[in-house]
């Protein structure tokens, strides 16, 4: 690892300060306000007994997610998608990513015919909003599942969660692989990658994009290694948060 | 005033606990996270030098507002308006109300050719979201104006704010006029009224609706009196908040 | 009251000429083409046996309203909302207001599981379109209820209408409270208020807005008094119209 | 011609009663409320000095039309296209037809760089709404052109209108060709045709559709003959209306 | 007929080369890639057992069509209607025309409670796209009906197709009636007509429009004659295509 | 590599038959109809001199892409996104992917202030539509650039293309990594990955998703190796196609 120090004083393999306010919402069955540095995402999980019509009678549950950003989460104000009357490609893409990440650790049979909708609303954005969203959504999901168990919608012994899941961004800046990019770093990155990793260290999703020059296998390997390590740290924070009791 | 005690222990003429976190957002030129009891609204003010095309060259500024609710701000999840592809009537109505309330205390000539967009996003809803939004939006607006002054977009001596503005709901429940209704009260109210009042105690907006039986002049007067008193208390909290320095 | 005479020769407490062509439409179960001076609104009531799914089986009916303006009802042509693909905030707001006003005088239990949709289409606009719409909609509603009774969808003795309802605008121009503002007056008004009042003289809705300077309690009282008197006159015209037989 | 008498007592080659209230609107530069029997269409013409950007600087004007139906113009209420958020195919199709019909008799060079938008709003529908719309729109158009001339937007000697234009429906019912179908006839017609004809008797548009059995050349000829005669009568009514002075 | 030769060497009463690739799609129950010269349209027929809810239980089937153009089918790229979020009037109009043309030759009782949706996607446009679409759609429809018969959704002896159907454009250019206009001819045509004709030579639809000067009965007759002859040739090509076995 | 044989007889590291019809469209500046087995995508490139407003005056060009599927490209018909009035998340996601892939090999400075829009329309879908689209889009792009050079919109010596680009899907089925999944394989894959690789063998994009069980680094490496080899073969086919002259 390099001796380079970043704008905010971190080493290249260091996460920004992570905080999770579990149970932030008085309304939702599970919720977490997560921060990765200046990025703050409110994740709520809404539990409904029953499933969408297309899934009825199959003995399986459904987990889905929606991601959005407040108009002034960013440095310049963006017009609301509700005002524009349509959802942008980026929003769609991230919502789908979060949903896939969560479903990868859920046994939908064990969940039974119940639906959990995760909303991830970015209150403040400073890079890595999708990875913070996934990491926080896992907390909200876990609590909503416990809520369903207490309410007897889920069997007392059902093992709904197969593993935990967290995500982090990695990227190459000035030829240097770095972990958890802040916004000022993200815009300069030649290659930008998001990795979604389970608590056991297996990949759920790997999305790497050359923003500048294409990258080779060696660079890819370096990024994956950083990402795995970052997700392991996030997993420990998640475990601690959930262990603390609500 | 009646001796009636409410579900949350308040007297009929008492506000819920009000908190204002001024400068909550690191991105916006002005911001406040305001709570009226369980209602929590994030208000941000975005300052732009320049005005929309239709106002160009008239030497006047523009203040407008958008209101929205996170899908799980409420007890049951609502579908996102961005997903539905259209904004509902209630959202439109409240956005327009907030905009009018703020413009009533702004001298747009003194503001100069600058635009301030206020976003009020309800993170958690427990009745009175529009009145909390107006009350918090004033703080964000005031700070955005100060920002514009520091950046020299507004003249050092321009008196942009003519007065402060706050709002509160009042209603009649079981024939009893009450101040600042929580959600469980709101759904039971026969008459529901929102009053928007300046710091000097003048009305900017009075909106009263009979949800149950129509009301007479005497009831209207009782509600207005409660509302004026509630807004005076809110004005004091606003003054204190702004006096504290950012 | 002041000695001021208005552009159209009226005194400050005088309505414009009101005409109601009851039964204008050969298709609708109830209808009225109402004029408040140059403002002309076609109100139709569509009666359907049955209620929306969310109300089924509750033994109650449903009354709702939609307001719209023809593109060239106004002095400058407005683009159609159907062409824009979305309904504006003002349209939404007025539709909701009309619906609330009518429901305030309807006993939905007595109506039984029937639905009445009121359409108020402004053919020509010269101020006060929403108040003319409410006043005319009451006539269309009353006739649709009678239609439902004749067709045996409503019991012969059911008292569906609890009272009549009418509405009028009032405003302060050059410090003078005035009744029933025409368009040229409306744009100059410092304070603009719409009052919806039942035949017995109770308020259903009070919506007052400071367009210019905020207003005090004394001004509010003057406006309310003018509005009550105006609605009483409109009630008499409604009574006469309905008494004449269709 | 056959001795058949129709439901409303007309002979097969007879129009329904036609009335035209010229100048119905106090706002529009030209307007007409036209009736073909129970079909009533309000046609307004909005004159604007200038043309859309894509036509600027070509020395030519623009005439376009929009058609719409009030929700309860018909026997059953239709949902508003503004509420549905999109315009239906039938509405689009008729708007385009009216626009083409009017442009066929306008010399856009003589019109100069001016725009006329014709709105045809069906207040009550009983068959033949598009043909009534075209026939009434011509009156509104002619008056808007005269308005433009009086306001000096159009040269005093410019011959903008090359001819008049009118339209009528024809159809085959029980093997019998008939003129100007009312709604009850229209739904029974095997073949349905609309013809748009200039004052000089030339075709602008012929649209014939087999709703039931396909038709042969002989039937087509009979329909065209009826349509030409009907349009000649409409032209005379138009001439008389315009001759009467506004 | 005139001795005039056209830009592409055709005589005035000559079709462009017509090719039909029957069964182009491996997915659809019926399909054809049809070319009228440079115009290429992919027609697919999707067969579904069952009918839309509004037709259920009436013992009848449903045939409908949708037309669209790829963005770069034309010389200049058009924005996608999916991106614009709404379908244009022209697209609606042509979709409706194709549907009517096909339904005119289908016995929906014999089809039984089955639905066939025809999609006509213009891959390359050089005039006459709607007429090529109808002509190719008939092939796709015929094959989908045979598919339904093989799958026993349609009775072995049911005569679903009453006749064949084809369409062609005709127009007047420099006073000369011409058959099957290519794009360069279409833009110059004074009158433009589309005729839809059954295999037995009866009209299903006649749509003639004066783009320039209005036309008289004699010109109309000349165009209809050309169109009937063109459709007879297309019918022979259709018969040959279907006779060849799939 | 395994001895497993697939449903279509391929070995696990074998592509489906690839065909490219270069210059398929007579209208577009560049085009290719590409097949990966039963997947057929029409790629067109539209060249416009000039750039969108937000890029004007920066001396750089713009390359973007839109992906769509015909409604019956798939085994079951999908509703058109134009009819639904909005674009789905999957469509957005793939359009963005194609655009990024192409921009990775374009020197926008060398392109100059020109815009190239690539449309990829799936005519028939059998798995791997996005990878076929990227591979075919490169051909269309290359030809559009040559067109721009011939028309002198691009300098004769400008090296606009920095490299070629191709893409292929890989996946793990029954624990076996396989290249270029057909639809029946894709739905069974536990892990699904798309790799976009330049002619020189560098990664532009790596998108791997666990559809079933999460995957480890060893599996990821096996997939990447297969993908690199597949893209190398596609690069050779592209080179041959472009070398053949148009």
Automatic annotation (TrEMBL), chains A, B, C, D, E, F:
Domain called Exoribonuclease phosphorolytic: residue spans: 14-144, 164-229
Keyword tRNA processing: yes
CDD domains: RNase_PH_bact (cd11362)
Pfam families: RNase_PH, RNase_PH_C
Record field: catalytic activity: tRNA(n+1) + phosphate = tRNA(n) + a ribonucleoside 5'-diphosphate
Alphabetical list of PROSITE patterns matching this protein: RIBONUCLEASE_PH (PS01277)
EC number in record: 2.7.7.56
Positions of phosphate binding: 90, 128-130
GO MF annotations in UniProt: 3'-5'-RNA exonuclease activity; tRNA binding; tRNA nucleotidyltransferase activity
Gene Ontology biological process terms in this record: rRNA 3'-end processing; rRNA catabolic process; tRNA processing
InterPro entries in the record: ExoRNase_PH_dom1, ExoRNase_PH_dom2, ExoRNase_PH_dom2_sf, PNPase/RNase_PH_dom_sf, Ribosomal_Su5_D2-typ_SF, RNase_PH, RNase_PH_bac-type, RNase_PH_CS
Keywords per UniProt: Nucleotidyltransferase, RNA-binding, rRNA processing, Transferase, tRNA processing, tRNA-binding
EC primary class: transferase
UniProt keyword Transferase, yes or no: yes
Oligomeric form and interacting partners: Homohexameric ring arranged as a trimer of dimers.
PANTHER family: EXOSOME COMPLEX COMPONENT, EXOSOME COMPLEX COMPONENT RRP41
Function description: Phosphorolytic 3'-5' exoribonuclease that plays an important role in tRNA 3'-end maturation. Removes nucleotide residues following the 3'-CCA terminus of tRNAs; can also add nucleotides to the ends of RNA molecules by using nucleoside diphosphates as substrates, but this may not be physiologically important. Probably plays a role in initiation of 16S rRNA degradation (leading to ribosome degradation) during starvation.
NCBIfam families on file: RNasePH
Similarity comment: family membership: Belongs to the RNase PH family.
Name of the molecule in the record: Ribonuclease PH
Organism classification: Bacteria, Bacillati, Actinomycetota, Actinomycetes, Micrococcales
